[in-house]
Amino acid sequence: MVTDYTLITNLVKHLHCIDISQYDVSFLNKSINVRIAETHCNSAKEYEIFIQKNKEEAKILICMLQNSYSDFFRNPITFAVLERIMLPSLILKKKETKHKEIRIWSAASASGQESYSLSILLEELKVTDSYNFNYRIFATDKSEDQIRKAQEGKYSATALNNMNLKRLKQWFTKHGDNYIVKPELKKNIDFSTFDLFSKQLDCPPTSIFGDFDLVICANLLFYYKPKYQKIILEKTTSCLAKGGYIIVGEVERDILIKHHYQELFPQSGIFQKY
Residue 193 contacts by C-beta under 8 Å, 6 or more apart in sequence? Predict the structure, then answer.
């Protein structure tokens, strides 16, 4: 049975001007139910009253909804195609057009794993490719806490399960029980907060003009209702350079197919608009 949490979503919007009704109904309801249980409330009405008396609870709920999970090299197929085909072809394209910079927007960067994974691939390609290309990764998230974690670049050993030993030794420094990203991996990444539903801006201000070769919004779309999925796709696609690519998570591929995007490699989540 699906409970109507409209009064709770309206209250959160009133308190913090954040519209959590944008989220997918099942994801939103599950998150609210978790907080109802953890606050020992017996009903949605009790939880609404609890929020009114404890204003910090609304912030806790918002953070729970925004705290998206990420991982290094999360989709092996996607990153294999990027490493062996897409990024080398972009480097060749830059060489032919005499434009040296590859521009990438990680539009839901969370705590930075995706951005650092991309930086690792590009740094490794710099060593093997004679063309002296540059790159800039614009990593954004609407959560300030997530961006702070990304900038710090400190991760537990369990968070690096998908990292092979060679890369772990080359790009991270062990500090106690944690691993810290080396400075040379951070130098071409710009971390900033950005709301994909901003009505004033289409791309991160730090990128100035967008023109991205790749926009990655993997494992983001399925958290939102279809109306807002469309808004995200239209905004990110408008920021692509001519012939640019958009990358989504494995379970989001059908969403792009329905919106008339073409997947370039089977099961890769790498698409172009047609």
Answer: 140, 141, 142, 143, 144, 147
Task: Please give the angle made by the CA atoms of 203, 206 and 209, to the nearest 5 degrees.
Answer: 50
Query: Average pLDDT by consecutive 10-residue portion of the chain (274 residues)?
Result: 78 92 93 95 94 92 83 91 94 84 94 95 87 91 92 93 92 94 96 93 91 94 94 94 94 94 94 88
Token code pair at residue 242: 């001519």
**Model pTM above 0.85:** yes
The alpha carbon torsion through 117, 120, 122, 127 (nearest 10 deg) reads -160
Domain boundaries in the chain? 6-66, 76-273
Question: Is the domain defined by 76-273 classed in CATH 3.40.50.150?
Answer: yes
By the 8 A CB rule, do 8 and 32 touch?
Answer: yes
Give the Å distances, CA to CA, from 248 to 69, 198, 211, 261, 267.
Answer: 14, 20, 18, 11, 10
Give the CA-trace dihedral at 86, 138, 185, 244, to 10 degrees. Answer: 10
pLDDT in the model for residue 1: 41
Residue type, 13: K
Q: How far apart are CA 90 and CA 241, in angstroms?
A: 12
